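Retro notes, item 3 of 5
We never archived the inputs for the guanosine-5'-monophosphate complex last cycle. Fixing that now. Sequence and ligand:
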Amino acid sequence: MERVRLYDKTFKTFIPHERIMEAIDRTAAKINEDFRGCTDIPVLLCVLNGSIMFTAELMQRLEFNCELVSTKLTSYQGTGSTGKVKQAMGLTADIAGKRVIIVEDIVDTGNTIVELKKILAGHEAAESKVCTLLFKPDSYTKDIPLDYVAMEIPNDFIVGFGLDYNELGRNLKDIYVLDEEA
Ligand code: 5GP
Ligand code: MG
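Structure as it came back at the time:
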């Protein structure tokens, strides 16, 4: 098992890159089943920064015409949620009347998803679906359905493949979990 040190914390390998790719393959296949042949142009909404790697991998596998829009939301500080979601950057394009697929790195408490749904309704999206690479079911407190979940994980703090610890670790190819023993 490989270990990485980010500031004061040590992380150990949790999900290797190949398993992440397989999970994205399966998720893209489901989205293709639902959207292939559509006559509208759906929008992929990349929620920066965490979702950047997942969005890039997912998008390459989609077999219908789609647009890419980004926004930036923040709620985490260190290894925990502050409970308050801040929109640090607005939507990069107009989504009025369009079907939107929210592409998230991870759904934890669900606060971010609630906020995103509100933002999209405010901008008059025709419909919005949620697609997330990771989901912590034990932490989720909302009743908004998650349409596409690539992988479920326990309530541990993870980094890598776009996810950070105080902005470090996003470049790691695998996903790592906090090593409590270290
Ligand atoms: P929620 O609003 O669902 O509680 O949290 C969503 C956001 O919190 C995610 O988009 C992500 O930025 C951050 N987050 C939640 N869990 C983790 C985690 O285990 N590791 C990292 N690095 N970020 C997380
Ligand atoms: Mg995120």
